[in-house]
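INFO  loader      accepted 1 record
INFO  loader      residues=481
INFO  predictor   begin
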Amino acid sequence: MNADLVLHGVTIVDTRDGSLAPDMAIVIENGTIANIAAASSIGANGAAVIDARGTFAVPGYNDAHAHPLNEPDPQDGLTLMLANGITGFRQMSGTPALLEARREGRLMPAADAPELLEMCGEILTGANARSAEMAVAEVRAQHAQGVDFIKIIDATPEVFFAALEESTRLKLPYLGHLPPTVDVRKAAQAGLRSIEHLGPKDSVLLGCSTDETALRAEARKQPAPGPRISGPIPVNVIMRAIASPLLATDPTEFIRYARVLDTYSDERMRDLAAHFVAAGTWHCPTLTRVRTMALADDQGYRSDTNLRYVPLPLRQMWEDIAQQFSQRLPAAARETLARLFAALAKLVQPFKVSGVRMLAGSDSGGAAAWCIPGPGLHQEFDQLEAAGLSPLDVLQMTTSNVAAFLGRESTMGSVAPGKNANLVLLSANPMTSVQNLHKISAVVRAGKHYSAADLDALKSRTEHRVASALPSSTAVGPPCC
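INFO  predictor   done
INFO  writer      dumping tokens
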């Protein structure tokens, strides 16, 4: 055996059922798990041997909804993700330039970064998909650019379903936000692959309302989706819209949210969950992002020690937005938003019990307020725990579920021979508490071992780079959500 690395004496966590296999050795060769056997039966044979006694091996975490490549300098966010155990991510907003860079092999940095699992092109909005014809043309253009999926966030029902139909014809997964004007059951039945952010806002909750038909008709009376500014949109306007989109919400929408909440039905919710299961529609709740949108002025965000990894201009913008949130939104609107977040979070546990498949994502990167690459996914773990999910549920949402969603179960999602050597070693049993998912003692990325000291050094390097950077323009990539 010509192994590169042996993790000796480790306890392996089975992501299928949470069972533990203690005192094992994981043999890694050329970035792949070559063998797993009892530690007593495996020797060094020239490999680097890591004493992993007392640690628990799980697959590397995957952030299934992130935007690190939209940062002006993606390296800091990517490094911070790896330092927090994230070995893979879905890039949820792309551009022709990013797709071209990926085709040419010059997109990702050479080291100290998670794997780019998937990437879409430009998000379908009122800017590039104002009509069904425009939407179909854009889907075809993105197919030619080599996207992995089509993402939509803003469209009329006509545009939404035209783009979905074309994506299906081209065998491209179609996913994203669900506009409140679109019937959620019809979208699932038509092939919507996944819904991000549990809607967002009230679009999924509408499907749980006893007054759904009237409320969706009311939503159609709102201004048509699309750009509200003629000509080029200033960068600061784009960034603020990304950071806290609810600040620009039409006041009448808050009235609708309240009516949706007042007419919520558990029976309707269970029926909707059954539709998702039958249609194979996934969810990526991003509860941490849903909360930052609904409770943007929470003082806890302002005192988060992880803000040391965020450039000063961005931190200042988030603080300003928090102040505006308190000043510009009436108390009744803020109360409705708090109720809205609670109602959305309450969907997660019954969805899981009903068999709805879910992924863990943070929505970090690209200016989303209070969402920090790396720590953001760990905050999502905590939100999922608070929503009623078990430690195994949360672990699966960031490991084996992602593998199943991507159709890559042969190479990722469990600690087994033949799988990619992307691993997290934890200092405590992750099956006894979600909090133990934070206790990272080492990370293996593509066969390279990062000790706790190495991970601390990556975090310190990122903090130093952020602190020493000169204030710059707040340029960002395409909108994220």
